[in-house]
Amino acid sequence: MIPPIANNFVAGETPTEALSHIEEINDDDVAGILNLLGEHYEDPADAEGDTDEYVRLARMIDSRDVNACISVKPSQLGIDISADVFESNLERIINAADCFVWIDMEDHTTTDTTLDAYERFAHETDGNVGVCIQANLKRTGDDLKRLADLPGKVRLVKGAYDEPAEIAHKDKETVDAVYRDLLEYMFQEFEGGIGVGSHDPAMIAHARELHDEYETDYEVQMLMGVRESAQVDLSKEDISVYQYIPYGSKWFSYFYRRVRERKENILFAARAVISS
Predict the structure, then answer these.
(1) 220-240 CB burial, b ≥16 within 10 A, e <16
(2) What's this model's pTM, rounded to 2 decimal places?
(3) Does the annotation mark 62 as catalytic?
(4) Catalytic residue chosen out of the listed positions 50, 143, 155, 176
(5) In contact, 47 and 41? CB cutoff 8 Å
(6) H or E segment at 188?
(7) Helix, strand, or coil here: 222?
(8) Annotated active-site residue in 50, 80, 104, 176
(9) Which residues form the Proline dehydrogenase domain (predicted)?
(10) Closest by alpha carbon to 2, among 262, 248, 257?
């Protein structure tokens, strides 16, 4: 059982609990992106087990009247084992799902394999998949040129992995500037399907300005437990808002990362302990 202190960031251990959370945020016109917690599997049986769980989750979403999709981590589906294992498991999930399927991006060693899989399934599903791209990687401008004409969606995030300086921008100001430039390129060159993966009010405001200029469709994506009131406020402004919602038994390490990331999260956790 997940303690109340962690419930702010994780929607439970079961898909039923996660879908109940989806129903709650749908009432505020916020959609959900469900992610089963788990990553970096080296045993094919572990990757197959989570693939089976995603297939069940996709079918549950399809059978219920909820505004939700799913997001998978490549290392959860076996990318560390082989590209073939990863693509085979991903294919099973996509074939089982009517709902949209996002492919998360992990460290730079997996970027090419992840993009290759996305390109394949973007064509095969006529755009019913999306992929995450990280602004801090110096290669991302070229990657976006490759993705611009594909069906599907692309989520732009700043990047959370500690990548080597020779391949990644390291200071915040540079990453912010690059994010703004890449976002402008997307609004100019993409026909739609832009996911603004950011909690930064300045980047969200920039996206709104770009939409007003180029009239390109976009959505804002934020994590469960982070600026949730802002998510509701944005949805009231007729902006498509998606909340990224983790769930599952491997909740502790995810919760620990969220608490360490930001001072506000540490204060939230401290208040929860004091009041419990």
Answers:
(1) bbbbbbbbbeebbebbeeebb
(2) 0.91
(3) no
(4) 155
(5) yes
(6) helix 172-189
(7) strand
(8) 104
(9) 19-266
(10) 248
